[in-house]
Amino acid sequence: MTGWRVVKHLNIVYLAHRVPYPPNKGEKLRTYHQIKGFIAHGAAVTVLCSVETDLDIAYCQQLERMHPACQVRYHRTSLKLIRYLRSFVANCAISESYFFSGKLLKELHNVLTKTSVDAVICTASSMAPYIEKSRRYLSSKTLTIMDFMDLDSYKWQQYAENAGLVMRFVYQREAKKVAALEQVVAERFDSALLVAEPETQLFRDSQPQATCRILTVGNGIDGEEFLPAASPIEIEPPRLLFAGVMDYAPNVDAVLWFYEHVWAAVRRRWPGATFTIAGMNPAPTIQALAGEEGIRVTGFVDDILPYFHQSTLFVAPFRIARGLQNKILQAMACGLPVISTTVGAEGIEADDGVHILIADSADLFLKTIEVLTSDHLRYAAVRREALATINRVYSWSQQLAPLRELVGAPQLSDEFDQ
Question: Can you list the domains of the chain with their CATH numbers?
Fold first, then answer.
């Protein structure tokens, strides 16, 4: 067995802004594998989260059935409109108000009072107020850890720079309020985690007064879930793929940019080329693309793996992005060469031209597609090097080692089985 060797029984509380199951989007994927890692090696985990739908409740119950050492305690949130309006009345971030529940706060106090908790791990800056409102219930031995994943204040600022007048005000306000939450974490939490080194450095630069310990804890890939196709496929004409949650603004922006600036040229060069947009909750602007020849919009899929196996190239034309793009790692693990913007590839341990291809303009995207589609040796080399990087660097056990060391000493040994 690989992973964490437990010396003393650990009690970990996850204060999650969303149910960390199923692991079908970045934030849930990351938290789920952290929880799974702790449980697999003897720790007890309590998840506290808000729910909005009956389906969320079913997911909570399913997580408990899969992992009996995990208790999930949840409370329903109020109506969305009330939560939005409350943020302006309380002069706080919309995300803070959106994920706040008085009942969930009481549940946290109950857990902290009745259980010896080694660490409380928050999954977003919006959960910081729960900790601040619970200070008198926290033991001096309980670690408070914020898993930012990526730095949301900068994401909101990016949104503002690309928005109209009204939404620019909303996004700029959110950026300012979230930055205030990040400052609270920097000064009052024990540790802050970020998903990639550029995000970590950005947080350090933005919070020079920080007293918390700041660590990079990356994401990994499940080698049993994402793996190459059993047999090779023909690489011409190109069969392009983008995968992700398709109402998420950076994903929508990336796909629309590619459609508007690259797709027509691809179809002129290869009339049989296809572009599959795979992912849940496609926005209306994405759904509208389904009527275009050669484009397929899937909506929710039970299993994304066949779409990786049926494609020849993965495109990641991000213009707005923070943190590390799990979808790129998944494509690499499936042996699918990736063409990405510099922004999209940020934080991934991959060299341009070796493990991944960087294209920051429409012309370069088209040229790179041409190179990989026409040169079988180059295609095979990029595929081979990408797989080698995933196998060498991106196992979950290796990526989560800093978290193990942070929470484990002295409860977990420093030994890490290979």
Answer: 3-220+396-417 (3.40.50.2000), 239-393 (3.40.50.2000)
